[in-house]
């Protein structure tokens, strides 16, 4: 079984060029650029024997999943879209919609703490990373049980994807930033009977 854990396409919140803007669970749609990225991603995934596509429930994830499915042509009728509980992006509370520079100007002490220990720093209005990571891992475990011999796509988000990947590597969650997640990048997780997960690809993109 393979899980194609992907990131959604470029979203409208970053249209101004602020790539460092905190989006979190702010529910924004894909930009035109993001829709084009999702179409190219669908062309790559349609040859992978996908049986189901999961999204997080946020617009940018749902739209990416729908566009991927639209590229499956003959297989489209046999592939379902479903919600994956626990795969929403981590919330950034009062920081959502702001750039890193804006957050730093509001509370430089908390921001510097977050830069050094992001997983253990609680942002006002947000939640600690650990229970969110555990929920995402539980979601993937449940999907593994449902699709034992099948390949699936899970359309996730930048931070939650990186937490999943760094956790699978057995590293400190605070180190998640060493992993990059570009828009519509693919991470391939292979699950074999009686063995641990193998990471075949991380942040791979042909876009």
UniProtKB/TrEMBL annotation:
InterPro entries: His_Pase_superF_clade-1, His_PPase_superfam, PGM_Phosphatase. Gene3D superfamilies: Phosphoglycerate mutase-like. Pfam families: His_Phos_1. This is Histidine phosphatase family protein. It comes from Alicyclobacillus dauci. The lineage of its organism: Bacteria, Bacillati, Bacillota, Bacilli, Bacillales.
